């Protein structure tokens, strides 16, 4: 990865009054812009998000209904009315891809934020207080990391919510299925963030400004929120980004296996539910959703990698 | 060293015990219970009979009591019966385990070889064109949804080119060695491609880090050839973190195997767990999941031991 070297300060060394006045974020953005794959990924992701958000307007403009099933129009080829043809229930494939993308991306973001907030809190507490609390929390994290996650997620996805006190109606509703997959993924995917935040906290809490704050009587919560968190933010941003990619993959495979987003709500994963049939009848339909997942996740991973380089001044050029 | 092993072994046992309880509890939350399933195939079963049956099987007992009874049975070697296979769980488990071993061992071996070749060649000249190509391949590997990769392989090699069978473990009436190899080829290819990405990134990172160390400079200064430095001095040291990572990735390898086996209809552990959850085969699912957890924990333990054994700088208190 080649990045353009920027001068340390515009005015050169040692000149009074020529200090670099750009903020740290401006510098980071500058470094990031030199990272071609990173910028390309950002553009790809922006296009994907706009593409998915256009689902409603485009549907109205084309005068079709993505939920409209028509068994006389199954597996239609590409046409002026159905730009990517129709699926096994005669629904418009393009519209479902766009709506499915909204669901998949939203699950990716929400599960990352929920799991991430949990991971950040855990990492902060473990790193800041150390000792027994640290030991206990890290054993919990190690235990979690050691588990085979997919089988565990399948079991969690198969749990009958009526046995947890939900009404039968609520347990089988679309929105509960949506939140349930977000929560179960968040429940298992917080370990990477927790470890990164703990490690960063361990180093930041030894700095002088933290001792100074403590000496001036600041309480632990204030120090963590005001001093430690802002100084650990760059690895957190990178970890969050990489987690989004992983979560989208988890969502897709769970929905594909039938334990995630429940049809008729589309997601890129559950659009491949009847893939075994698609392979022989309409191979293109087996390609589209997976290709979108692949492009999204690879762009997210490249973005995370580029940010890691942009945020770390010592990183390889 | 011995006390370290004992302590880690105890820790592993505790995690396994906790997980057995969690998984047992989750199994109780699966849709339906064994008596419901009996009632479904026996119309005319009265509620009194069902209540009696529950009492006989101890299903009306509190969770802790049921768990304790189950644990006692398991510890004395009684794993129960599989509902769908109508055979003892152990008899169903053994052939599935063998099948998964074939798949995982083959993919693992290929992944290791491939990632060593790719990772080392990209570390020769970071930022060069080989490195760019390898890193694209590695990012693709970690970003591809494995079930979709399997679909693409089926479309290409089974439906399109018709070189290899799309599913199953062998032709009826054949089942010879080469027949089995033909049926394993695509699953192994899918799992290998998906795994190699992560492995390659680790090898590359470890190699680049090692190549910056002082002893490498010393070796170069003393006149060691570039190849000798890479393959003798650097690779040996880079192998230490790599061996650890390989053992730690067992869980994700198993998750990948679950999806691959499901896609290619291979009757291995992963597919067995998936099928048993779908068909309410509680005993089989429970033992299958626990076995997967146990194996993953053991792999993690091995990773720790390997780390200590290979790196003399690590001293255990």
Commentary on this structure:
The complex is a heterodimer of chains A (317) and B (317). Chain A has 317 residues and is mainly alpha-helical. Chain A has helices spanning 24-33, 36-53, 55-62, 93-129, 131-145, 149-158, 168-171, 174-188, 191-204, 208-215, 220-231, 233-257, 275-281, 283-311. Helix content of chain A is 67%, strand content 0%. The longest helix of chain A has 37 residues, at 93-129. Chain A starts with 23 loop residues before the first helix and ends in a 6-residue tail after the last helix. Chain B is mostly helical. Chain B is built from 13 helices and two strands; from the N terminus they run H-H-H-H-E-E-H-H-H-H-H-H-H-H-H. Chain B has a two-stranded antiparallel sheet with strand order 1-2.
- Measured by DSSP, the beta-strand proportion of chain B falls in under 5%
> pLDDT below 50 for ≥5 consecutive residues: which ranges of chain B?
none
Mean pLDDT of chain A: 83
What integer value in Å does the Rg of chain A equal?
A: 24 Å
Uncertain ranges of chain A: 1-12
Q: Radius of gyration of chain B in whole Å, from Cα?
A: 24 Å
Biggest interface, which chains? A-B, 48 and 52 residues
Determine the oligomeric state from the structure.
heterodimer
Number of helices of chain B: 13
Fraction of helical residues of chain B = over 70%
Overall number of strands of chain A: 0
SSE series of chain B? HHHHEEHHHHHHHHH
Overall outline of chain A: globular
SSE order of chain A = HHHHHHHHHHHHHH
Mean pLDDT of chain B: 84
Structural class of chain B: mainly alpha
How many helices of chain A? The count is 14
Q: Roughly what fraction of the amino acids of chain A lie in strands? A: under 5%
The backbone outline of chain B, from C-alpha atoms, is globular
């Amino acid at each position: 990865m080649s990045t353009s070297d920027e001068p340390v300060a515009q005015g050169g060394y040692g000149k009074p009054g020529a200090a670099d006045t750009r903020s740290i974020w401006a510098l980071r953005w500058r470094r990031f812009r030199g990272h071609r794959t990173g910028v390309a990924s950002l553009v790809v992701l922006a296009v994907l998000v706009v593409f998915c958000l256009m689902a409603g307007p485009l549907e109205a403009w084309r005068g079709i209904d993505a939920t409209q099933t028509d068994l006389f129009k199954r597996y239609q080829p590409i046409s002026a009315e159905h730009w990517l043809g129709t699926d096994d229930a005669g629904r418009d494939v393009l519209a479902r891809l766009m709506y499915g993308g909204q669901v998949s991306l939203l699950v990716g973001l929400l599960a990352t934020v929920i799991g991430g907030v949990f991971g950040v809190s855990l990492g902060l507490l473990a790193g800041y207080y150390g000792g027994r609390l640290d030991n206990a929390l890290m054993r919990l994290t190690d235990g979690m990391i050691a588990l085979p996650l997919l089988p565990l997620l399948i079991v969690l996805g198969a749990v009958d919510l009526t046995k947890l006190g939900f009404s039968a109606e609520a347990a089988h509703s679309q929105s509960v299925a949506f939140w349930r997959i977000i929560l179960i993924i968040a429940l298992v995917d917080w370990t990477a963030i927790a470890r990164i935040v703990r490690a960063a906290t361990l180093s930041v809490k030894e700095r002088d400004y933290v001792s100074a704050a403590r000496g001036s009587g600041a309480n632990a919560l204030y120090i963590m929120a005001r001093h430690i968190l802002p100084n650990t933010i760059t690895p957190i941003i990178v970890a969050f980004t990489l987690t989004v990619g992983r979560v989208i993959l988890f969502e897709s495979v769970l929905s594909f296996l039938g334990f995630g987003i429940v049809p008729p709500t589309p997601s890129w994963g559950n659009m491949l539910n009847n893939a075994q049939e698609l392979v022989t009848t309409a191979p293109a339909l087996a390609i589209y959703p997976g290709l979108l997942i692949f492009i999204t996740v690879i762009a997210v991973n490249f973005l995370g990698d580029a940010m890691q380089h942009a945020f770390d001044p010592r990183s390889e050029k | 060293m011995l006390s370290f092993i004992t302590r880690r072994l105890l820790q592993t046992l505790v995690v396994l015990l906790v997980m057995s309880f969690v998984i047992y509890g989750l199994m109780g939350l699966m849709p339906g219970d064994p008596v419901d399933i009996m009632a479904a195939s026996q119309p005319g079963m009265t509620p009194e009979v069902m209540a009696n049956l529950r009492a006989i099987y101890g299903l009306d007992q509190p969770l802790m009591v049921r768990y304790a009874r189950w644990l006692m049975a398991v510890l004395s070697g009684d794993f129960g019966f599989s509902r769908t296979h109508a055979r003892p769980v152990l008899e169903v488990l053994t052939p599935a385990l063998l099948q998964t071993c074939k798949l995982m061992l083959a993919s693992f071996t290929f992944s290791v070889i491939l990632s060593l070749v790719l990772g080392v060649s990209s570390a020769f000249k970071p930022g060069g064109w080989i490195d760019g190509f390898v890193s694209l391949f590695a990012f693709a590997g970690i970003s591809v949804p494995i079930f979709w990769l399997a679909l693409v392989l089926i479309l290409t090699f089974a439906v399109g080119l018709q070189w290899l069978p799309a599913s199953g473990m062998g032709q009826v009436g054949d089942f010879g060695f080469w027949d089995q190899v033909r049926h394993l080829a695509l699953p192994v290819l899918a799992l290998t491609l998906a795994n190699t990405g992560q492995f390659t990134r680790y090898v590359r990172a470890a190699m680049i880090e090692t190549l910056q160390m002082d002893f490498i400079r010393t070796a170069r200064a003393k006149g060691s050839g570039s190849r000798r430095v890479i393959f003798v001095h650097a690779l040996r040291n880079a192998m230490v973190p790599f061996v650890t990572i390989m053992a730690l990735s067992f869980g994700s390898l198993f998750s990948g195997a679950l999806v691959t086996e499901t896609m290619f209809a291979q009757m291995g552990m992963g597919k067995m767990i998936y099928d048993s959850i779908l068909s309410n085969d509680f005993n089989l699912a429970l033992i299958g999941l626990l076995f997967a957890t146990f194996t993953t924990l053991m792999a993690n333990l091995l990773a720790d031991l390997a780390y200590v054994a290979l790196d003399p700088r690590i001293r255990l208190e």
